């Protein structure tokens, strides 16, 4: 009989734990995302989508800026996961590579700008604690992490752009490659 009670309690406990996680989302990340999305859309409307498109089009003509500055701005100002919405201002042919760069940058920025990806702060603090215990400077580690991240996202962006171009051609979507 005790065994059956234990199974029943475990079964309902699993759903109670799921409900707690769900409520955490409902009171935490979902309102934050709704607020951020609303703010970004409002700012976009105030500035004008044409002006934002024009600015992004100008700076994305240069691959170095496209895969360093644009992801940096996106992650710094919009944080993770809202930063990916900046990709909507890029031509289709650059969107996969932008996403790859942005998603690869949400961790390296945390060392100097923890607001950008606060969910991963515990990982950064664990690494930084070990580094400082070994005699290193946390500020130096954060700067090295950021600079290395910028180099890595540039390389990833360039590689993903080439892979995307190959895939677009292979699947008969050459018109995407002829945009801007």
UniProtKB/TrEMBL annotation:
<keyword id="KW-0472">Membrane</keyword>
<feature type="transmembrane region" description="Helical">
    <location>
        <begin position="141"/>
        <end position="159"/>
    </location>
</feature>
<feature type="transmembrane region" description="Helical">
    <location>
        <begin position="64"/>
        <end position="87"/>
    </location>
</feature>
<dbReference type="Pfam" id="PF03608">
    <property type="entry name" value="EII-GUT"/>
</dbReference>
<protein>
    <submittedName>
        <fullName>PTS sorbitol transporter subunit IIC</fullName>
    </submittedName>
</protein>
<keyword id="KW-1133">Transmembrane helix</keyword>
<feature type="transmembrane region" description="Helical">
    <location>
        <begin position="22"/>
        <end position="43"/>
    </location>
</feature>
<dbReference type="GO" id="GO:0009401">
    <property type="term" value="P:phosphoenolpyruvate-dependent sugar phosphotransferase system"/>
</dbReference>
<dbReference type="GO" id="GO:0016020">
    <property type="term" value="C:membrane"/>
</dbReference>
<dbReference type="InterPro" id="IPR004699">
    <property type="entry name" value="PTS_IID_sorb"/>
</dbReference>
<keyword id="KW-0812">Transmembrane</keyword>
């Amino acid at each position: 009989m005790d065994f059956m009670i234990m199974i029943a309690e475990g079964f309902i406990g699993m759903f109670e734990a799921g409900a707690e996680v769900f409520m955490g989302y409902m009171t935490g990340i979902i309102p934050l995302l709704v607020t951020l999305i609303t703010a970004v859309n409002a700012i976009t409307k105030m500035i004008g989508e044409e002006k934002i498109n024009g600015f992004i089009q100008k700076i994305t003509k240069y691959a170095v800026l496209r895969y360093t500055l644009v992801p940096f701005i996106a992650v710094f100002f919009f944080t993770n996961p809202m930063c990916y919405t900046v990709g909507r201002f890029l031509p289709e042919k650059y969107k996969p590579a932008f996403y790859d760069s942005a998603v690869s940058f949400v961790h390296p920025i945390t060392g100097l700008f923890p607001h950008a990806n606060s969910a991963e702060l515990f990982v950064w603090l664990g690494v930084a604690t070990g580094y400082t215990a070994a005699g290193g400077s946390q500020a130096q580690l954060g700067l090295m992490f950021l600079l290395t991240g910028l180099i890595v996202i540039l390389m990833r962006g360039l590689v993903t752009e080439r892979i995307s171009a190959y895939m677009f051609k292979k699947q008969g979507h050459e018109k995407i490659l002829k945009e801007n």
